[in-house]
């Protein structure tokens, strides 16, 4: 079975080649950390490497070696066999169920039999995604090889990976994914496949409440953020953090929490919905609760 092949591997965790689907801020960050750690993404990767060289954390030769490990695949990469040797793939496209389902069915059809299919989803059910991992040629399900592998932005800095088994996930697949996340230098927590997992079940209602406080006139945005920053030692206030994550992402996660639990405590703030409708998506669009002049390097997907 794919699982037994994996456990017979001579590598520590058997993961040598990794594919990342999605070239937004999460996809590029994951590629960067994976490439950096795999033996002891692309203008943006150069920028990140340039910074490390400048700080003296890496010399030019090491930076070139890391860069050479990242290869951009073509649009048809899966069909064209460019992923033929991949051991683990991390899907990091936007939070759209239909898009992710299509990708999982393509991955199940084209990846080598032993490969692990991981998703960086922040709120979509892994059991639902796993159910779409069906090899289109044989009709066989690869649900047992699907696992949630949730990173945090900025990926090179944040030390956590949240691991989420689908109901279908093989234990050995879960353990291999855990080992690989640890090899990437991350600490791992494990969550059941419930809406928002641990992280966003707690973070998003907190951010949403800050937006409701703003919309109901409790305080100015600056005072809300400063209170949490200086009063609770948060690195960013909740409204700044919402802009950093993307207001569309915050709204879509609140909508998943609300829809899947039916609990009104997860009602997204009206202001949040209006801002997304207006195209005020936070840092990536230049306008959110705050105004940003410089655009970030990677384009949104
Ligand atoms: N990529 C790579 N490295 C970055 C970076 C980026 N985008 N942004 C900052 N860094 C690095 C800097 O180079 C610096 O590295 P150094 O210590 O080696 O010099 C270090 O991070 C600190 O950066 P700065 O001094 O410029 O800035 P701050 O000290 O203000 O830290 C921050 C910036 C790390 C972003 C900090 O404000 C922070 O931790 N904010 C909260 C982030 C957070 O909560 N993220 C999780 C969001 S939720 C999520 O992603 C899940 C999803 O499902 C919603």
Structure in words:
The structure is a single chain. This protein is an alpha/beta fold and 301 residues long. Helices cover 44% and strands 9% of the residues. It has helices at residues 2-7, 25-37, 43-54, 60-68, 97-110, 126-131, 171-183, 199-215, 221-232, 238-245, 247-261, 270-277; strands spanning 18-21, 88-91, 116-119, 146-150, 160-165, 187-190. Helix 3 (43-54) packs antiparallel against helix 4 (60-68). Residues 1-10 have low confidence and may be disordered. 3-hydroxybutanoyl-coenzyme A (3HC) is lined by residues 48, 51, 122, 152-154, 156-158, 199-200, 235-236, 241, 245, 249.
Strand order of the largest sheet: 1-2-3-4-5-6
* Portion in strands: 5-15%
Order of helical and strand elements: HEHHHEHEHEEHEHHHHH
Rg: 20 Å
**SS summary, helix count:** 12
Tell me the major beta sheet: 6 strands, mixed
Bound ions, cofactors and other small molecules, one mention each: 3-hydroxybutanoyl-coenzyme A
Instruction: Give me the count of strands.
Output: 6
> What would the average pLDDT be, to the nearest integer?
90
Structural class call reads alpha/beta
Point out poorly predicted stretches. 1-10
Fraction in helix: 40-55%
Shape estimate: globular
Distance between the termini: 36 Å
Keywords: Oxidoreductase
Domain 3-hydroxyacyl-CoA dehydrogenase NAD binding: 17-192
Site (Important for catalytic activity): 150
Family: Belongs to the 3-hydroxyacyl-CoA dehydrogenase family.
